[in-house]
Amino acid sequence: MLIDTHCHIDQFPSPEDVVRECEKSELRVVAVTNLPSHFAAAADRLRGNKFVSAALGMHPLFAAAAIRELGTFKRMVPHANCIGEIGLDFSRQGVATKTIQERVFEEVLSAIQDRPRFITLHSRGAETAVLEGLRRHGIKAAVFHWFSGPVKVLEDVLAEGHFVSINPAMLSSASGKRVITASPRERILVESDG
Fold first, then answer.
1. CA 75, CA 146: separation in Å to the nearest integer?
2. What pLDDT is stored for residue 103 in this prediction?
3. Which of 45, 65, 172, 189 has the fewest CB atoms within 10 Å distance of its CB?
4. Four-point Cα dihedral 41, 48, 77, 108, nearest 10
5. What is the pTM (predicted TM-score) of this model?
6. Cβ pair 138, 113 in contact under 8 A
């Protein structure tokens, strides 16, 4: 069975067609979301599907909206078995909201530490901070989606029992190839990041 561990189905022009094709092909998909309001819509539409599951997300690049939806996230988390996309983004694109992201991420980690779940993480430019957050909250076996950090941090991520997910774009970049080469096969998952 093929599993796409990180797919933004709601970003496709016709998400319903994508879901139907995944169900027909028996392709298991974790449909990540950017905000709890997106999760609510996705979970409702995906109810009854066998292979496509919605993940409760709080994307770091949506930090301003995330603050407003934090209470909603906390109310929904007991009913969510998949969490994602969550994390931090300290790249040029996200660094302006670093403080807000850190606050939201800490609240999210506190809310999800109660039991094991499938968790897919965004960590661009913030790999060490994301890993430290997982440590503080005792969260194990999470997935660092499209990991692009230093090999030393990758080694720490893997040593702590976490996974990395790879996608086709990583096959043509030097940093992507480095992550693939440095990761044990049993710690690599696939994603489309579609």
1. 28
2. 96
3. 172
4. -60
5. 0.94
6. yes
Residue 120 structure tokens: 């897919």
Radius of gyration of the chain (CA): 16
Amino acid at 173: S
CA dist 12 and 114 (Å) reads: 33
Q: Which amino acid is at 78?
A: P
Two tokens, residue 172 = 């043509």
Contacts of 69 (CB under 8 A, 6+ apart): 35, 36, 37, 58
Average pLDDT, the chain: 95
Please state, in angstroms and rounded to a whole number, the distance separating the CA atoms of residues 109 and 114: 9
> For the packed helices 36-46 and 15-25, what is the interaxial angle rounded to 10 degrees?
50
- CA separation, residue 87 to residues 65, 92, 147, 163, 174 (Å): 15, 16, 12, 15, 23
